Amino acid sequence: MTEFTALPDLALRSLGGSVVAANDESFAERENLIRPGRPAFRPHTFGAKGQVYDGWETRRRREPGHDWALVRLGMPGVIRGVVIDTAWFKGNYPPRARVEAAEVEGYPTPAELEAADWVEVVPVSPLTGDAEHFFEVSDERRYTHVRLSILPDGGVARLRVHGEVRCDLSVYDGIGLDLAALENGALVTACSDEFYSSPNNAISPGLARHQAEGWETARRRDGGNDWMMIRLAGPGVVRLAEIDTANLVFNAPAEAEITGTADGETWFPLLPRTRLLPDTRHRFRIADAPVAAYARVDIHPDGGLARVRLHGFLTTDRP
User: Fold this and answer.
1) CATH homologous superfamily, domain 171-317
2) Residues 108-120 pLDDT 10s
3) Which pTM does this prediction carry?
């Protein structure tokens, strides 16, 4: 039921998501809905509007209707599941909620989104207080925005929209792109270990601010090594590999190597086994590489990577 949570949160603020509008945020700001991490709470912390909540909270509604928030997905895609989290909202949670989705290209304003063709992906469903609610979605359409409606009012701590990235790569025609970027549609499909953090962190946008924003494995005691498998944004030719061990001062791998495959059977080297330094952004030129659809990154023996970038060209854009 909750297997979809292993997929990226398309709405996450750190992945480019934004709560572009809400009809009301009297008690707590709408931006909290898509913040990373678990909601926090400190009792008896009162401000001018009452108890401070790490979530979105509307006023007590005294007229017919309901409250809503519009979210632009940081990474457009196919939605596989939604999580509505009412953590810490115990006497002020909404009794019901609904989620709709729409595909609107370009940069629509909130007013333009109101007129969009919205599709219900989570029907009106009951909620309880201080709990995570998981909803599977069976819809193969691509969406760029979601709308959370709470009926009639109250507080929601987090909204998670898990799915598969389906972005428009045509903007990179002729100029190349990061074939391993999560935001371009790449995904870590397997890894040897994710004891401390998810391997998809290593292909997330931006720079890692601390160790938890990268991929880190447990300490190996068996003489083997750790690895991750990346499904690239599309078949392409890798020209530059970037391996970043930022923030990993005493737990960076000693070495790394990268191999590629077009068919999942025949593998070829992209980067030979190469020494790494702690807390360092390494860049390696790659010459005459065949077309790859997947890349495997092996670290020796264990440790962590802040980011992995594989810059190159999709096969249709190869210069």
Assistant:
1) Galactose-binding domain-like (2.60.120.260)
2) 999 999 899 999 9
3) 0.90
